[in-house]
């Protein structure tokens, strides 16, 4: 599984995921900070990434387009840094990996 980290999450997630054997890229490594969500969505779909986001728009894009991919892992929290929620995020990635590999919204 490859994780594409949305612009609304810190790039520190890349290192955190790497330390926990998860391949990831932050959108800032790929595109522009001002790219619309649909561009990120399409990139993730074409390149088999799971989108990791704090943004509600990706779920809306999935619903509006009836898209079958990519999977979206959406977090909702006040503190969205790895030191606050990292262990919980890792547990969810592990526990729901089969769902994430099957194009779902979590």
Automatic annotation (TrEMBL):
InterPro entries: DUF5615 (IPR041049). It comes from the Bacteria. Residues 1-105 form the DUF5615 domain. This is DUF5615 family PIN-like protein. It comes from Dyadobacter sp. 676. The lineage of its organism: Bacteria, Pseudomonadati, Bacteroidota, Cytophagia, Cytophagales.
